[in-house]
Amino acid sequence: MAKxxxxxxxxxMPFERALKELEAIVSRLERGDVELEESISIYERGExxxxxxxxxxxxxxAKVEKLTFDAEGSPKGTEPLDxxx
Length: 85
Hints:
The chain is an alpha+beta fold. The chain has helices spanning 2-6, 15-31, 36-63, and strands spanning 65-69, 75-80.
């Protein structure tokens, strides 16, 4: 619970901002110029950011539909996006 409360601001972030911060965290961790305690702290924040981005992407995916066409190639409507195709 403490970790979630410490990163409560993430819940309100738009996808692009959360992704940008997550990328910055990954970059810092890859460079290795962060002390152990800070590494742990920013890694935990990265986990929260990743989960938030995943959730936002799943919501967006659920809204995506693909166009359907009749035999003549004219649009006839939409249907849910097939995740497997």
